[in-house]
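Hi V.,

You were right to ask for the full record rather than a summary. Here it is.
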Amino acid sequence: MSYLTRYYSKLNQFFNFIIKKFIKLKKNFLSFLVLLFIGFFFGNLFGTIVDSVRRLNIADSFLIFLLLLFNEFINFNIYSHYKKKKNTLVEIKKLNFLNAFKIGFLLGIFIDSFKVGS
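Predicted structure:
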């Protein structure tokens, strides 16, 4: 006689969830990594160009506002599409790739900010 406790069933669900995520990661790992790298490149490029834009007397707060607006627009598109019931596989892949680009872009800006400190 086997008894399944609530803890065991939750643990089983968790491991099944992790396995599904690894399978998804295996399918799209290379494209995700490439888009992460491209986003990182554009983030570093943006950080380098910001210095040139400052010479045009555009306030840094305006540039930060544009960057925040870009980030929130992507987040809104990603998470509003996840709530829909009828998502095609192509839409989900596009959103995942857009998210990878966004993560790389923000990581590139973050790494580029260390140049200011040194």
